[in-house]
Amino acid sequence: MAAAIVDPVDVDAWANLVFVSLVTDVIVRSPTLQKVAINAMAHAGVMMEATAPAVTLLTCDQSMETLDTVGLAADVEPALVRLVDQATARFRDDPVARARLDRSLKRLATRYPHGRSPYLALLALHCRDARPNDQRPLRRVQQVIAFGGLHASTSDLKLSFKACVAAKSFAMQEIDTSAARVVAHALGLRALCEQVGRPIELRWIDRARQVRIGDQMISYHLSSPGLISFVSHLFLFEPGLWRWMAGFHPDDVLLDIGANVGIYSIAAAGLFGVRVAALEPYAPNLQTLRHNVAANRLDERITILPIAATDVEQTGRLFHDGGAAGAAAQHFESSDAAPATADPFDTVEGIPVDVLIERGTIPFPTRIKIDVDGNERAVIEGMTRTLADTRLHSVRLEVRWWETNGRAVVERVKSYGFRATVDDDQKNLLFTRTTAAAKT
Prior knowledge:
single chain, alpha/beta, Rossmann fold, 2 domains, seven-stranded mixed beta sheet, four-stranded antiparallel beta sheet, 20 helices, 15 strands, globular
């Protein structure tokens, strides 16, 4: 408190004041001081201004008079969940801090038995562990779903994966977003635990997100707010991809085309023990990818190539919006075909997958993940010999298959002896080999 008062522009000091008040018995009872702290943090982008009522709910004496004054307005729920996420990350999953938050949220739930917000915040606080046959996480999910607002299919908790996909759909459509994101992540965590049959733990350690499955552990060292938010709800976004990777065998080789910052390359190598070839041409993503591979000591298991997968070997332009690490939606075009434009671009090399394999640059992949935001046709045309090789077991492809170009890509892959199924949301398809291919 003294540091914040002595130096009013020290945002971190104000943040410490607020967060310490949440997890200790040193309660900031002054509404004026709370308001000053929240305003300072909101101005610096550390916390949204709407979080102030959530702070008050968790730091007040929680008498009925005080609670009735503050109330559980609609905008308090996402603020309360975010507050819990930030406090958990700030105190690196300290058990004393978590216990204090748990007690405060349970008292709040007692005072508001007909309000969903405390139960959702409790779920957010605790959806960091999953153990086989442990039903407690499902009971917390049931408490949230019982209040309504989520699709009925999320209530079939005997099918954790199906319920996760239903909740993810709501989150992606921005319907009941705060609840859908937390519920989908919790159910995705549960679904993966059921599949691998081992405990899963998520922790914040020195600003890194640690993921442990059984005896295997990886850490994501990330700096941008977007990536930190992503790994905070790690099992929300691609539950089908996690399910696919959990079925890998030790002798599998994953080719990750459009690896971005390596979230799934690192998981495949570090948690599921396979070799990985990661293709990523965008420089900010590439820098973070390399840093995380080195931090996890996976240099011998993951090969990183700063190139784009294409149909013919060429130098081209990678158009982008200048986003930070984690940005997607880059688009590769050959230098000859690229129109004159003021849009930012990088000059990168494009090489077909078939060529990379034939030159021995990468080992033959038994599994391929493709996420290239519109360049799917060129990627597929550059890997036809690979598709025809029966050593390739499956391909996970993000494609808008309901559009004309997307349908053509899907039919092209299927012609090599693959069956396509929707893997989680509609744009994510999993192609599994069913017959030997005659095409070349």
